[in-house]
Amino acid sequence: MEPSQIALSTLTPGFADPVHDTQAVFRTLLDALARPGTHGAIGEVVPMLPELRHARAEPAAFAALLTLCDYTTPVWLAQPDTALASALRFHTGAPLVDKTEQAAFAYIHDAATLPALESFASGSAESPEQAATLLIRVDALSGGEPVTLSGPGILDTETISPLGLPAQFWRDRATLVPLFPCGVDCYLVCGTSVIGLPRTTHAKVN
């Protein structure tokens, strides 16, 4: 259903201050990838209550999609939802695609349904920027199995313990890391917080 067929009052609101909020969220997202494993705070720049819950999107993920997407960036939603789909079309103009390999950005609200990472675009040696960026909701950013990160942006090592990621995620990442500059970049999101996992980061499950 197109946004024109839906009452504006039912659409999930976007940024209250689009210019300022977009800049703030973009800086946070860049910093999260530049310093893998650290927790970034998106802040309460998008609604936290009924509308966003109905859209089945974490606040950090919705803010990231509003910031990163426009009419040139196809988006794949693991759980196609009228509320979130309509909100993205209305606020960003981003086209929604049916196939993972077509997506520039993807949002997976339920990590248990995460497809194999190799199914997403990983770019090429000539055009690595054409790789997909994934936003994956987790139950919590701590409390899970420890994972040790190393690589660019990490002084020695960084340990994270996200809760709710399938074990296959880490195995898939391990097969893609050697393919650099190809690969996929990932954000783990929970509430208003985010952890960046760029394609350059090596991860060892402890």
Automatic annotation (TrEMBL):
Organism the protein comes from: Paraburkholderia antibiotica
Example of a GO MF term: lyase activity
Recorded superkingdom: Bacteria
Keywords, comma-separated and alphabetical: Lyase
Pfam families in UniProt: PhnH
Gene of this entry: phnH
Organismal lineage: Bacteria, Pseudomonadati, Pseudomonadota, Betaproteobacteria, Burkholderiales
Presence of the UniProt keyword Cell inner membrane in the record: no
One example of a Gene Ontology biological process annotation: organic phosphonate metabolic process
Record's protein name: Phosphonate C-P lyase system protein PhnH
Gene3D superfamilies to which the protein is assigned, alphabetical: Bacterial phosphonate metabolism protein PhnH
